Amino acid sequence: MKTRNKIALSALGVIVFLLMWEALARSGVVPARLLPSPSAVPAAFLTEFRSGTWQQMVLASLSHYLVGLGLGTLLGVSFGTAAALWGRWDAFQAWVVRMLRPIPAIAWIPFAIIWFGVSEGAASFLISLTVFWINYYASYAAVRAVDKDLIELGYAFGQGGLIPRLFKIVLPGALPGILSGVRAGLGQGWMTVVAAELFGISGLGMRMMEASGLLATNIVVLYMVTIALLYGVSDFLFMQIQSRVLSWQR
Amino acid sequence: MAAVTLSTKPAASVIDLEGVSIGYGKDAPPVLVDVDLSVERGSFVAIVGPSGVGKSTLLRVVAGLHTARGGKVTIHQDQRPGHRPVGLVFQDSRLLPWRRVIRNVEFGLEGLPVSRDERRRRAEAALKLVRLEGYAGRWPYELSGGQRQRIGIARAMAVDPDILLMDEPFGALDAITRHNLQDELRRIHQETGKTVLFVTHDLEEAVHLADRIIVLGGTPARVVRDVRNSAGRDGSVFRDQVEQLRSEIADNYSI
């Protein structure tokens, strides 16, 4: 399919979705308080924007997100790579990982509050936890899958030491897989932003909770749309970087 | 267990194998035993034998990638700075897909006491040697199988090795490309005078290229024939001579 046709079809999909939503909201089948129409969102946006709340909330969430994403990605990639490289370390940490892995980030909220208080740190901590696991497993698998023949090539040409092997063969070879993990973490990170802020840390999630308490559902939808847009922009930007970094792929 | 010994004493040979035996598992029977072999400087030696006989493993032992079970492996290294004792060419080219051609050729020079400019200059010279000087900026995926093999040869030649080890380098290529590359390799050998140890299962190829053919055979395998081949040396291969050598070696194949 041509790129232009693809873009046109995706735009059409969004428009049809919004129209159906608008029709459902206006039909009166569902009370307006329960389901605001999409046309009510721009007005909500103007109010929130004029008061400066929207900008404040976006910036607050962005800062939690970026800190959590950065930390979780860095640690996840490092630990995943280390476990894949060293069998002994892998065996040592295997059961610890199995025990910790199934605990969702939200379950750590009590500890996040006890350790960090209701603070930015708590939100970033929860986001980094989510992002950590995604990157841990993606990096582990990607490093394991690096072509052993290329590692042998390194030994044959005097690049078998840990540092050259890691930076000239293992990490570049694992990069496509690692970047898929980073991208998945990018999306999961936004989901955790909302969950982490629901208990009162300033940001999009907190504002949504406030609005839902007042049944201001149009404001809730406004922030839902905001998150969707922020995710869309971050994913798009990441894809641009990724396709550049991986331009060696066919 | 025998690792490779590097010697800087002047010697007529580049490699000396003495009583080398090779096996895979700890308790598995050896696949190759009692290999004695001296490769003279500047010679082109082919190792032939049926598949599974251990010829590639023998090459990997010389390259230091596999440890022999017994015996002694010595490489007589020239005392010149900025070079590696061996340059290895694989059957599957093994270019790093994330490096452009020129950076692939530079790969083996990294870590040697060679300046960045010198590294680039040597990589460019190696590309010129394999007649792909216009391909420096390409990605490996943009190359044909034959071109990839040429880059593999350039990468091995760039480290200015004492000996060029080639593990069935043309085995996966189509017939026309294979013949072209065989001719190129003969030219490179004549131009540079490099010592070459070449593993192949193709007798014709061995006869065409090498001035000495080592035949491995038997279970466990050992050297069953060591033939001086005058056919390939001067570049004019005489049909009857090739046929004679072929049948002579082929008799040993079934041992």
Structural features, described:
The complex is a heterodimer of chains A (250) and B (255). By secondary structure, chain A is mainly α. Chain A has a single domain, classed as Orthogonal Bundle (MetI-like fold), CATH 1.10.3720. In chain A, 80% of the residues lie in helices and 0% in strands. Chain A has ten helices and no strands. Chain A has helices at residues 3-27, 41-50, 53-85, 87-100, 109-116, 120-144, 148-156, 162-197, 204-213, 217-245. In chain A, helix 7 (148-156) packs antiparallel against helix 8 (162-197), helix 8 packs antiparallel against helix 10 (217-245) and helix 9 (204-213) packs antiparallel against helix 10. Chain A is globular, with a radius of gyration of 22 Å. Chain A starts with a helix and ends in a 5-residue tail after the last helix. With 255 residues, chain B is of the alpha/beta class. Chain B has a domain at 1-78 and 206-255: P-loop containing nucleotide triphosphate hydrolases (Rossmann fold), CATH 3.40.50.300. In chain B, 32% of the residues lie in helices and 24% in strands. In chain B, the strands form two sheets. A six-stranded mixed beta sheet of chain B has the order 6-7-8-4-9-10, sandwiched between helices. In chain B, strands 1-5-2-3 form a four-stranded mixed beta sheet, with helices on one face. In chain B, helix 5 links the parallel strand 7 (163-167) and strand 8. Chain B starts with a strand and ends with a helix. The interface between A and B is medium-sized, with 19 and 24 residues.
